[in-house]
Specification:
The protein has 404 residues and is of the alpha+beta class. The protein folds into two domains: 11-102, Outer Surface Protein A, domain 3; 108-403, LigB-like (Protocatechuate 4,5-dioxygenase, Chain B, 3-Layer(aba) Sandwich), CATH 3.40.830.10. Helices cover 41% and strands 18% of the residues. A hairpin with a 2-residue loop joins strand 7 (202-204) and strand 8 (207-209). Helix 14 (322-340) packs antiparallel against helix 15 (344-353). It is globular, with a radius of gyration of 22 Å. The protein starts with 10 loop residues before the first strand and ends with a strand. 41% of the residues are buried. The model has no long low-confidence stretch (mean pLDDT 94).
Length: 404
Amino acid sequence: MNARPRVRPLEPIWTKRDGEDILVLRDHDGVLEAPVAVPAIVGLILSLADGTRDIAEIAAVLSRETGETLPIEAIEDLIRQLEEGLILESDAVVVARQRALAEFRSRPRPMSHVGAIYPGDLVALRATIDAHGRGVMEPRAIRDAEIRGIIAPHIDFARGGPVYHRVFGRASQALSIADVLVIFGTDHAGSPGAITLTDQDFETPFGTFSTDRTIVSAIRDAIGADHAAAEELHHRGEHSIELALVWAASALNGRRPTIVPILCGSFHRYVGRESDPAADARLAAVIATLRTALDGRRWLAIAAADLAHVGPAFGDAEPLDHDQKDDLRLRDEAMLNHVSWGAHHRFFTALRDEGDRSRVCGLPPIYLTLRLLDDARGEVVAYDQCPADADGTSVVSIAGALLW
């Protein structure tokens, strides 16, 4: 047993069961086969198990917080059970993580969200995709074949289908001649500033897309293999790249360019002014390496990125009314104006200056796509606010944009 126990990176979700507060722990690494529910008191212990306290110190804080004194032996026994349950870091967790990673690397990445978000049957999938554009006459522009970048949602197809359909429909010419798709996806469980790579090919209902291992290897060398692989298992269940790739594949008419799948961790530390992404050497190395590796090739960048997450469903105290939704639209439009001008720094600072109060989960993919394209100019072709609760008082905003 570790002298200073430390909880693993798990997603905590507080809920109620039979009137009691329950903490549900979700493991994005997949070491735990299913989410684990623990009582509130265990949740308090886990909040203290950050690797800085020994068991006696944890017991002292518990006593102050609860007004009760728990025997050291009882806390030790609980800590031991949490280690055996793979909730705290331990040698057993290291072995389990290595086993899960070896299994993930043994075959192409499977479709994690087939059936839940989109059908695996090609006929049914085509019908689903076509239905979202039924009755819509898509405009075309002469420069559509010259598109270099796409901003697309990663929300489910049921809510985001019309936006997906419009942006990928306009990008179909550019997709038809691309040799490489660089896909920046939001890693919803990613560590701050993380750039997470994988060599695995990606399965889709349209066939398996090969990952460009030469490019991935070059990025890995540039940012450090340990960093690039630290959260590789997030690729297994993360939906952002998968959903964008499925929709892109529907527009490729059987072609399968290679892909460069890059999951992006949060920008919390940059938004908090602890540092600036423009000065981050690791991010700069990713962009420089991609530019060198892609030189002379026909490529297209895709940011799989939703925008705002606001309302009670995301922790806000008040439900959104009509005027607040209009205000959100105006703020989103101002932010997207920076995207249209390819102004990655203004895009970032606009969110930073408001403390990212709208929780734009697509900030990292959009920012890195704009940096990769550098001098891009663009057009926002679709925008929507998708309901995120039964009453429509919480929304996720999404947009589709094309960049030349």
